[in-house]
Write a structure and sequence with these properties.
This protein is of the alpha/beta class. The chain has helices at 10-22, 46-59, 118-129, 133-146, 163-167, 182-191, 229-233, 263-267; strands at residues 26-28, 31-38, 61-65, 68-75, 78-81, 92-97, 154-157, 175-178, 196-198, 211-216, 236-244, 273-276, 279-283. The strands form 2 sheets. A 7-stranded mixed sheet has the order 9-8-7-10-11-13-12, with helices on one face. A 6-stranded antiparallel sheet has the order 1-2-6-5-4-3.
Length: 295
């Protein structure tokens, strides 16, 4: 596949060019064109460092650095990247000419239409946002229920930054994640570079029916058009889908009308419906009723 190369918004690009000019770039051992700057050199502007790294990981695209994969942002004839650590551990930003490549590349760089989603800017801090104990306990409860049923090939719809793979280290050859967010894709690839990812919505997806199990966790499938619920149901031999309960939305979502899941729409398509916290679960798996509330 060819990766999306989104355009940095004008205001961010103008700021980034000023930030780049203000930084000291030290040539590396690979030559003057390959340089780097260190977070500690600008202690007075750590907020700027974090903002620039966020731009890289939100609007960049994957490229290989020999056997590793990083996220690269191309600006004004140069590309900028970090070494893939979580934000609080990131200390260096690298740069090199845009036409410099390191090892064999898995896909060509292309420009095509890009639509920003609310999750793009959230992606870099998404895992931190959901690292509180109550969320981790909810994750543990879910995967205690789900893990025994994960066998064969998996389609992960709305995979985000890769929560499923954090709890179930499924073999790369037996996994495909899809998500429309460029920022989420970049975080996913940073964490799981060996696993397959497609940047698209489920409504655009044409590979349904080829998987042993299809999953969509913590509300991701609520963004699917109800006219595609039948397609969703048959996207895997088995399925486990978590829709937002009517009246519940994540606090960062800005268009509530688009995710108000209709119980009637679900009941018309799916045989089993259960309540799991703030979510309505549609599944054909045998489940432990003790882990769910009654409808």
């Amino acid at each position: 596949m060819a990766y999306v190369m989104p355009l940095v918004p004008d205001a961010d690009l103008e700021w980034a060019l000023d930030y780049i000019d203000d930084c000291f770039w030290k040539p590396s051992r690979q030559g003057a064109e390959h340089a780097y700057t260190v977070r500690e050199w600008r202690k007075h502007d750590d907020e700027g460092f974090v903002r620039f790294v966020t731009l890289i990981r939100t609007y960049g695209h994957p490229e290989n650095f020999y056997r590793k994969t990083y996220i690269y942002l191309h600006i004004d004839g140069r590309k900028y990247w970090t070494m893939g650590s979580p934000m609080h551990e990131t200390i260096i930003i690298n740069r090199a000419p845009s036409n410099a490549f390191y090892g064999k590349q898995v896909a060509p760089l292309v420009n095509r239409t890009y639509t920003e989603t609310v999750y793009d800017r959230l992606a870099v801090r998404y895992d931190d946002k959901y690292s509180e104990q109550n969320y981790l306990a909810e994750n543990a409860r879910l995967f205690n229920t789900l893990t025994p049923h994960i066998k064969g090939s998996v389609l992960d719809i709305g995979c985000g930054t890769g929560l499923f793979l954090e709890y179930i280290p499924h073999h790369p050859a037996m996994y495909l994640g899809i998500d429309p967010s460029q920022g989420m894709m970049n975080e996913f690839i940073r964490k799981f570079p060996s696993h397959a990812f497609r940047q698209q919505t489920f409504d655009e997806f044409d590979g349904y029916g080829e998987f042993d199990i299809a999953i969509s966790l913590f509300g991701s499938c609520s963004y699917i058009d109800p006219s595609n619920y039948e397609k969703l149901k048959f996207s895997g031999k088995n399925y486990y889908f978590m829709f937002y309960k009517h009246g519940y939305l994540p606090d960062y979502y800005v268009s509530p009308d688009e995710t108000m899941t209709s119980y009637k729409d679900l009941e018309n398509v799916f045989d089993q419906l259960h309540i799991f916290g703030n979510y309505l679960v549609a599944t054909n798996l045998p489940i432990d009723e003790a882990s769910y509330e009654n409808l």
